[in-house]
């Protein structure tokens, strides 16, 4: 795993962070109690997200040796805003839980993701018009349809569910650009999957908030899609390095 990294210390560190993240996320689900409506304790969820921030900046430091510094930095910053969004939604920041604060933080994070993917594709010839814009349009349509059925149609009346639509389109843009890269270079398929999982997670979350969507362990399902989605996006920095190395 990550054998293309020349420095074994860097390789072992990146693998260790991946293992720690997995233990925190999946271990929290397996060993947690469902007494509070979800199995994962808040601290394991927040710690798993913080681990990805550390992984993101670790990848950024590594990326400086391989010519993908900008991509690494933008992805790491995007993950940092994702972590901030997690803190808002967990209610551990001053002022308590804030859905709007969480949405805003995630949105800023995805702007960094979008810039990272767009610039990387343009800089390395992965910017074919058909693949890029075709994927974007397809994912925008998917997001609109999913938003309508999951969030809008289940709402009792006019409310903040309209806030979710532009947000969903923003997340769909990340998925679309990731898919555009994957169509031109299959090694980026995990990036596309990660962005799609993030979109799925937040559509479920929007359904919970604005349309009374509910099913057993729904909070855990949100995290079991969101967490792996973020991990795949962060570790796409390694994919970018591997691509540049050829």
| Average pLDDT score | 92
What is the strand content? under 5%
The percentage helix is over 70%
Count of beta strands: 0
Question: How would you sum up this structure, described in words?
Answer:
By secondary structure, this protein is mostly helical. The chain has one domain (8-245). It is built from nine helices and no strands. α1 runs antiparallel to α2 and α2 (42-63) runs antiparallel to α3 (69-90). The radius of gyration is 18 Å and the shape is globular. The two termini are 16 Å apart.
What features would you highlight for this structure?
246 residues; mainly alpha; 0% strand; globular
Brief summary:
With 246 residues, the chain is an all-alpha fold. It contains 9 helices and no strands.
List strands and helices in order, with pairings.
Layout: H1 8-31, H2 42-63, H3 69-90, H4 99-123, H5 129-152, H6 161-184, H7 189-211, H8 218-234, H9 236-245
């Amino acid at each position: 795993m990550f054998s293309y990294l020349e420095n074994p210390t860097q390789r072992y560190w990146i693998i260790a962070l991946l293992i720690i993240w997995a233990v925190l996320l999946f271990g929290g689900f397996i060993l947690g109690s469902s007494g509070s409506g979800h199995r994962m304790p808040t601290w394991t969820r927040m710690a798993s997200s913080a681990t990805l921030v550390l992984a993101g900046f670790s990848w950024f430091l590594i990326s400086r040796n391989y010519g993908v510094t900008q991509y690494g930095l933008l992805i790491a910053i995007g993950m940092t805003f994702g972590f901030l969004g997690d803190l808002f939604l967990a209610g551990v920041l001053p002022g308590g839980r804030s859905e709007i604060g969480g949405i805003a933080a995630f949105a800023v994070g995805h702007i960094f993701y979008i810039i990272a993917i767009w610039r990387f594709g343009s800089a390395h010839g992965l910017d074919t018009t058909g693949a890029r814009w075709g994927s974007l349009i397809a994912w925008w349509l998917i997001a609109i349809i999913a938003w309508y059925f999951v969030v809008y149609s289940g709402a009792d009346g006019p409310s903040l569910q309209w806030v979710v639509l532009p947000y969903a389109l923003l997340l769909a843009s990340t998925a679309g650009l990731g898919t555009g890269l994957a169509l031109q270079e299959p090694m980026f398929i995990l990036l596309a999957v990660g962005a799609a999982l993030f979109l799925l997670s937040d559509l479920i979350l929007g359904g919970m908030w604005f349309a009374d969507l509910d099913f057993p362990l729904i909070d855990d399902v949100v995290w079991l899609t969101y967490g792996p989605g973020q991990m795949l996006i962060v570790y796409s920095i390694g994919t970018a390095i591997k691509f540049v190395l050829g």
